[in-house]
Amino acid sequence: MKKIPMRSCVITHEKLDKKELFRVVRDKEGKVFVDDTHKANGRGAYLKKDINVIEKARKSKALEKHLEVSINDSVYEELISKL
User: How far is it, in rounded angstroms, from Cα 39 to Cα 18?
Assistant: First the structure.
């Protein structure tokens, strides 16, 4: 039986399968982007694939706190468009 990688959403704190989450990454240069491969180098934070969770992350600035960098609204718009 193969192990399923579980990750925690930074908003809901639910443990979910990696496939059910978006990964947002800050690389060494400070650039923030959505990592579709779940393998990009850098500090990552996971968000549940739910519009309410994404909107809550935008309002509470939880991703900015986890990634320790300011995040442009285009990242949130990209997450919403990928739903």
Answer: 11
CA distance 57 to 63: 6
Domain 6-82 has CATH 3.40.50.300: no
Directed axis angle between helix 73-82 and helix 51-60, to 10°?
A: 170
Query: In this predicted model, which residue has the larger pLDDT, 77 or 1?
Result: 77
* Tens-place pLDDT, residues 70-79: 998 999 999 9
3 residue type, one letter? K
Residues in CB range of 23: below 8 A, 6 or more apart: 34, 35, 38, 40, 44, 45, 46
Query: Distance between CA atoms of 50 and 43, rounded to whole angstroms?
Result: 22
